[in-house]
Amino acid sequence: MSTSSPDWLTHGHPHIWLPYTQMKTADLPAPVARTQGCRIELADGRVLIDGIASWWTACHGYNHPHIVHAVQAQLERMPHVMFGGLVHEPALTLARRLCALLGPGLDRVFFTESGSVSVEVAMKMAMQYWSNLGEPQRRRILAFRGGYHGDTFGTMAVCDPGIGMHTAFDGAVARQDLCELPTDEARADMLEAWLAARADQVAAILVEPLVQGAGGMRMHAPAVLARLREMADRHGILLIFDEIFTGFGRTGSLFAFEQAGVRPDIVTLSKALTGGTLPLAATVASQRVFEGFWSDDPTHALMHGPTYMGHALGCAAALASLDLFETEPRLAQVRVIEGLLREGLAPCNALPGVREVRVMGAIGAIELTSRPDPAALRRAFLEAGAWIRPFGRIVYLTPAFVMPPEDLRRLTGVICEVLGASAAAHPA
Ligand SMILES: *Cc1c(COP(=O)(O)O)cnc(C)c1O
């Protein structure tokens, strides 16, 4: 690829620092010229089918004209204005529409610019809620093995250290408490015993509903969430659902919690909120949580406020994205994708080196028995015309919901071929 590198890559790469990347040994990143629909066009003219929708965000495909026009119109009116003491129509309309979609009991929206920060805000809300109520000892957040909630210090504390993304900061991160998800009776008993011993110190339980994403695409039954809701209620603890990955249709319902028939006290949203166009996140709280801050005491106000909060362009993009969920058949498309993923990835079950194939909604994940060489796999996918980015022992697809069946069949076919060839090259 280096022969066809554009000048901006050659001259700019020595000055850029890339995420999760050993800069010394990693392949040069693929230079993107443009995007359209489910395709990524590289600088040398090659076109890739995008299997992961830019870290799960671009649910309507790239460059959807409805979002493009909404952002253009907003840009001309007002790119942004500070949100302290001033407000604007896109943010307030978005807050109202998000609450309507989330349903009764999730009533107040706090906007931020990234998923990690929306989780930070959720945890701060939970802790300050209790201190405002005269229980400042409730500082603990209970999170779960296999979970991922972000890369900032507060969120690293609630990630499973076993997923290995943050080991460089061991000792510097104030670890919160981690338990096993209550996926069976024995684990539920363990969690119950843990809670019974220290419920009065716990501010909130934090969980990714139905699918733990970056921690390994692990899926659990809706009943697990009902169990957590019941435990949280019995001990008077707040329940936070991190729907940053699962929100906006990814698991088959608009929000994952709908499948469990229970509601959180706080929910975090980001990734697909703007359809993959602009950075924006939201922390949405119940009336109960909000009322914990409702006071004549100014120190009881929520103490957080990012400079770019409620960014007007991001809010305009999110409003346009919500329009698309109303006017285009996104959830039906997710059902079709789910069937195609099941069918297309099933042959991988028979491959040596494959531990399990898991599918839920528009998520298809293959867990391998051992950690592959991720760079070699990425290269093989790239050569086959697919943008697929495995991590750890997981190879996965999270396509845009608008992906045509023939593209999706091509992607599942490429995965079967590449994993088959690598199994043949390295027999167990
Ligand atoms: C991606 C993700 C985050 C972090 O979001 P950023 O925008 O990358 O900070 C948090 N929680 C979950 C479940 C995520 O998938």
Give the tags:
single chain; four-stranded mixed beta sheet; 428 residues; 13 helices; alpha/beta; globular; binds pyridoxal-5'-phosphate; 36% helix; seven-stranded mixed beta sheet
Describe this structure in words.
By secondary structure, the protein is α/β, with parallel strands linked by helices. It is built from 13 helices and 16 strands. The chain has helices spanning 7-12, 53-56, 65-77, 89-102, 115-132, 153-156, 185-198, 222-235, 287-291, 312-327, 330-345, 374-383, 405-425; strands at 32-36, 39-42, 47-50, 108-112, 140-144, 177-179, 202-207, 211-212, 218-219, 238-242, 266-269, 281-285, 354-360, 363-368, 386-387, 394-397. The strands form four sheets. It has a seven-stranded mixed sheet, with helices on both faces. Strands 1-2-3-15 form a four-stranded mixed sheet. The protein starts with 6 loop residues before the first helix and ends with a helix. Residues 114-116, 119, 148-150, 208, 213-214, 242, 244-245, 270-271 line the site of pyridoxal-5'-phosphate (PLP).
End-to-end separation: 32 Å
Provide the low-confidence segments as ranges. Answer: none
Briefly note the structural class of the backbone: alpha/beta
**How large is the count of helical segments?**
13
The hetero compounds bound to this protein are:
pyridoxal-5'-phosphate
Helix content: 25-40%
Q: Going across the biggest sheet, name each strand in turn.
A: 4-12-11-10-7-5-6
Largest sheet: 7 strands, mixed
Mean of residue pLDDT? 96
Order of helices and strands: HEEEHHHEHEHEHEEEHEEEHHHEEHEEH
Query: Beta-strand level of the residues, as a percent range?
Result: 15-25%
Number of strands: 16
Overall 3D geometry? globular
Spatial extent as radius of gyration: 22 Å
